[in-house]
Amino acid sequence: MKTAKLIFMALLVISISSCSDDDDVNNIQTQQQIENLVQSNNFVITNFIDSGNNETGHFRCYGFTFNSDGTLIANNGVNNYSGTWSITNSNSNDDSSNDLDFNINFPLNNEFEDLNDDWDIVSYNSNSIVLIDVSGGNGGTDNLTFQIGTPAANCTSQIQNTISTNVQSGTWRITLFEDSGVDETNNFTGYNFTFNSSGDLNANNGSTDYNGTWSITNSNSNDDNLDDLDFNINFNLSNNFQDLNDDWDFVSQTATKIELIDVSGGNGDTDYLTFEKN
After folding, report:
1. pLDDT at residue 101, rounded to an integer
2. Run of H or E residues at 164
3. Do residues 128 and 176 share a domain?
4. pLDDT for residue 162
5. Helix/strand/coil (H, E, C) string of 20-88?
6. How many domains does the chain contain in total?
7. For position 269, which CATH number holds?
């Protein structure tokens, strides 16, 4: 009896080990299928829900390229953002896509940082990949869908392209900054601002150098209305420059002057910001 029991246990171990090996192979194959899919095609975001808010429009004009070296490029013809991507397996004991994490990271302080996560894979096919993330904190759910394709020809508005091209030319200075009725323009006297195509924003007065990010997003890609554009500025600082952080609305824009406004949704205070080209 003892001998028979030992033989049975040995066969059970061999059986489990064999199943585990098969699962490992299948899981690797699933991961490779997804990797081959995303590396072989260009993608657009067709759905991005951030804790109940539909923010698809922030990325509607961008094409995404998943490179084999792990770099992830987002480009709208004007701005070019670089991040990283990978697929990792949280459970190598089965071949379910539920155990695979689709990791995205853009080292930015603009709308692209909202994409940063270890996304769970809901489904994938030859045309798209559907991702989800459920927050462990507040239980909020984010949804993200990449689909093979390129941004529509009329996706990026002509005005958006024009403004982006203008601000990337030369350096700019702040000629007006009014914060809730208080004129604080002097806080930025002597600083020259450079808006780089990478999305980096630099402020320099010859001795002090500050770095932030900038972008222009379109809440409605179906028309060329200036009212639909946001001029996003972010300095990750704890000084006067943090007061510039906002998704500013446009009042007017030319090749040498950009006038911005922000009306607070809380107390209704109004801020004004004007850049003029040097």
Report:
1. 92
2. helix 158-167
3. no
4. 85
5. HHHHHHHHHHHHHHHHHHHHCCEEEEEEEEECCEECHHHCCCCEEEECCCCEEEEECCCCEEEEEEEEE
6. 2
7. 2.40.128
**Whether residue 93 is found in the same domain as residue 202:** no
Same domain, 245 and 137: no
Residue 163 belongs to some domain of the structure: yes
Say what the pLDDT of residue 13 is: 47
Q: Do residues 120 and 171 share a domain?
A: no
Q: Which of 101, 117, 148 is the last residue of a domain?
A: 148
Q: Which residue has the tokens 């993200």?
A: 144
**How far are the Cα atoms of 56, 104, 106, 109, 263 from residue 115, in angstroms, in the given order?**
11, 7, 8, 11, 27
Q: How far, in Å, are 115, 141, 201, 228, 258 from residue 249 at the CA level? A: 23, 28, 18, 8, 10
R_g (Cα) of the chain, nearest Å: 25
CA-to-CA distance for 147 and 128, rounded, in angstroms? 4
d(CA 127, CA 164) in angstroms, rounded, equals 31
Domain that holds residue 163: 158-277
Banded model confidence at residue 273, pLDDT cuts 50, 70, 90: very high
pLDDT tens digits along 162-199: 899 899 999 999 999 999 899 999 999 999 999 998 89
* 97 is a domain residue: yes
Check whether residue 239 and residue 113 sit in a common domain: no
Interval 111-161: pLDDT, tens:
898 999 999 999 999 999 999 998 766 668 999 999 999 887 666 677 888
Tell me: pLDDT of 19 over 80: no
